[in-house]
Amino acid sequence: MMLPIVVASVIAMAIIFERLYTLRRSRLMAGDPLLAIQSWQGQGGITASRVDELARQSPLGHILAAGLAGSHSAETMRTRIEDAGRHVAHQMERYLNTLGTIALISPLLGLLGTVIGIIDVFQAITVHSAAGAIAPELLAGGIAKALVTTAAGIMVAVPAFIFHRYFRGLVDELVIDMEGQAIRLVDMLHPAGQVRRRAA
């Protein structure tokens, strides 16, 4: 059972490094898009080319650009932003289910390997006892080898579980920050809605 454990460890490490690179705040929320949008109002307004450029800058820019595309009411703008936000959140959570699955099954694979190893040990004991002698070193060595898979499975599961929890928390934090930026955009372009909400 060491082979699937090794494969799981390689996959887990690849996911961890990929997510560490992808979920950087500097990449997801590059620059200050709200400040740029505000400056556009005095420089020719919000044009299609500027919105396209904003969408290419970062995932946050993509969300805000979805709300800016076309001329919409505050409610329609919020709906478009929510739709784009769900897509971005899904991309941010990519591979996390796989990482969580690895954290869950690695100890089970290790335990299965240990059980299989101990079965082999007892089969060897049965053969040797029929011959009239059982070497203690055979018993101890066989059990030690069987326990290696459990140790390996736990060694894979612990970092996988830690990073899975870390990435989940990081994604939640980033989504909240993006939602805050989106709300500020709606309030900036539709101040009347902001006044009504505060009054309510």
Main beta sheet: strand number and arrangement?
Answer: none
Number of domains: 1
Low-confidence stretches: 193-200
Overall pLDDT, averaged?
82
Multimerization state: single chain
Principal-axis shape equals rod-shaped
Query: What is the overall number of helices?
Result: 9
Helix content: over 70%
Strand content range: under 5%
Structural class: mainly alpha
Rg over CA atoms: 28 Å
| Total strand segments | 0
Query: In whole angstroms, how far apart are the ends?
Result: 62 Å
- Encode the helix/strand succession as letters: HHHHHHHHH
Structure description:
The chain is 86% helix and 0% strand. It has 200 residues and is an all-alpha fold. α1 (2-22) runs parallel beside α8 (136-189), α4 runs antiparallel to α5 and α8 crosses α9 (191-199). The longest helix has 54 residues, at 136-189.
